[in-house]
Amino acid sequence: MLKLAVMVSGGGTNLQAIIDAIEDGRIQNVCIETVISNNKNAFALKRAEKAGIPAKCISPKDYEDRDAFHDALLRVLEESGADLVVLAGCMVVIPEKIVRRYENRIINIHPSLIPSFCGKDQYGLKVHESVLARGVKVTGATVHFVDSGTDTGPIILQKAVEVRQGDTPELLQRRVMEEAEWVIMPRAIHLIASGKIQVTDGKVIEIQ
């Protein structure tokens, strides 16, 4: 049984997609041990409570400096016994000490086809604003392992989504979530839990 710690910052739609996929069998041999938010007002915490999943807020505002916050976060992750840390709409930059502790055991969902529209300052609605400003015809989402860079870790899965005439950032964001994010995040977790993923030379190999 693969144990997850899911980190969230907002509404928790990707968390809900994971919960639903576990319940309907698309993710097997997986349980969510804990949900962690840096935002005490995150609706994701209510989603966890409704699903009976232990959840807590670890906010940098409650610590004297960033190092103390990072130490507290690492301690909670270790105490959870999590095998895999899932960043599901998490706005916290994961520090080097946690990346090292969980090498190739932290995954993130990014709302574009990496390496396009990613990196510093490209998150949330800003990504979709950039997509529309550039005029690309296809966007999507990417699940990747987290390394010490920003959106630079090995890519696990990607799924393309059409950009339509008349799209607003909000409309596009919703379509990317529905057609890509909520599909490939559960799929990636299932593949990892099934032992179907390995990282070789900085690239993900899916074992058939």
Overview in brief:
The protein is 36% helix and 25% strand. With 208 residues, it is of the alpha/beta class.
What does this structure look like?
The chain is of the alpha/beta class. The chain contains six helices and nine strands. The chain has helices at residues 13-23, 43-50, 66-80, 96-101, 125-134, 169-193, and strands at 2-8, 30-37, 55-57, 84-87, 106-110, 138-145, 155-162, 197-200, 203-206. Helix 1 packs across helix 6 and helix 5 packs across helix 6.
The percentage helix is 25-40%
Head-to-tail CA distance between termini: 20 Å
What integer is the average pLDDT? 95
What is the element string, with H for helices and E for strands?
Answer: EHEHEHEHEHEEHEE
| Content of β-strand | 15-25%
Structural class: alpha/beta
Backbone shape:
globular
Low-confidence stretches: none
> How many strand units?
9
For the largest sheet, list the strands in their spatial order: 3-2-1-4-5-6-7
Please summarize the sheet with the most strands: 7 strands, mixed
How much is the radius of gyration in Å? 16 Å
Task: Quickly count the helices.
Answer: 6
